[in-house]
Specification:
Length: about 270
């Protein structure tokens, strides 16, 4: 049986076999993903994917803790990382520690992830020195959508040096890995070559040390997905067909059939 992935074990895969990562928000999905994944991320994308929010800004620490608990009940092999939601870590390293410690204590997850580059390096250092492993997240940062004016990929060469500096800063601060989101392949490759920690790409490049996608995007459950998503399944069509058939059979009293009913005991 596979042993549980550890934070040092994950970092040690730098430059090795690609690290396989997916998001999970619920116990059963976590159980399915756990069979193949090195890391499961309880992403704050759950605000949009599960709760129907327009973006991730309204997600709370309570949401993250509740879904983190569910995922921990479903996974026993993968490293489980929980996203710090907008507003829970930016103010100071001390507040970040207090909230990250709540996540770790109340979910049993192994690490947290937070968005930010050079500006978050002191916080990353504060947390990792005090026992909380941090996965960083640079490039396109969805929590910065209002300052960026939307979800903007990093595609202009004049932006590359700033993102490369973010990568250096988070690695030097002690991040055990870094998500690289929405950047041109050349920049993803450069980050992967320059940084001593695994780069996990999303909308980045196959040159990264690993990849991550949102589970619901990947299985085809969401109607609209970004360009960088490959749909490996057709869950939305399957669910539509199932609910349509159910509705039809109930309307025609064909469901429940005899095999779905309890026999009288004698
Ligand atoms: O919230 C999320 O799902 C994420 C990943 C897509 C990296 O941050
Ligand atoms: Na996120």
């Amino acid at each position: 049986a596979r042993k549980r992935m550890t934070v040092p074990g994950f970092t040690a895969r730098k430059g090795g076999a690609p690290l396989i990562c997916l998001t999970s928000y619920t116990a059963h999905v976590a159980k399915i993903c756990d069979e193949v994944c090195d890391l499961l991320l309880v992403g704050d994308s759950l605000g949009m994917v599960i709760h129907g929010m327009p973006n991730t800004l309204g997600v709370t620490l309570e949401h993250m803790i509740m879904h983190g608990q569910a995922v921990m009940r479903g996974a026993d092999k993968a490293l489980v990382v929980v996203d710090m939601p907008f507003g829970s870590f930016e103010e100071s390293p001390e507040i970040a520690f207090r909230n990250a410690a709540r996540v770790i204590k109340e979910t049993g997850a192994h690490a947290i992830k937070l968005e930010g580059g050079t500006e978050m390096a002191p916080t990353i250092r504060h947390l990792t020195r005090r026992g909380i492993p941090v996965m960083a997240h640079i490039g396109l940062m969805p929590q910065a959508m209002n300052t960026a004016g939307g979800f903007k990929a990093v595609r202009s060469p004049e932006q590359f040096d700033a993102v490369a500096a973010d990568g250096q800063a988070v690695a030097e601060a002690g991040a055990f890995s870094v998500v690289v989101e929405g950047v041109a392949p050349a920049l993803a490759k450069r980050l992967t070559e320059e940084l001593p920690i695994p780069t996990i790409g999303i909308g980045a490049s196959a040159d990264c040390d690993g990849q991550i996608l949102v589970f619901e995007d990947m299985v085809g459950l969401l109607p609209r997905v970004p360009t960088f998503v490959k749909r490996y399944g057709t869950m939305e069509e399957m669910m539509r067909a199932a609910v349509a058939q159910y509705a039809e059979e109930v309307a025609e009293r064909r469901f429940p059939a005899e095999e779905h009913t309890y026999k009288v005991k004698d």
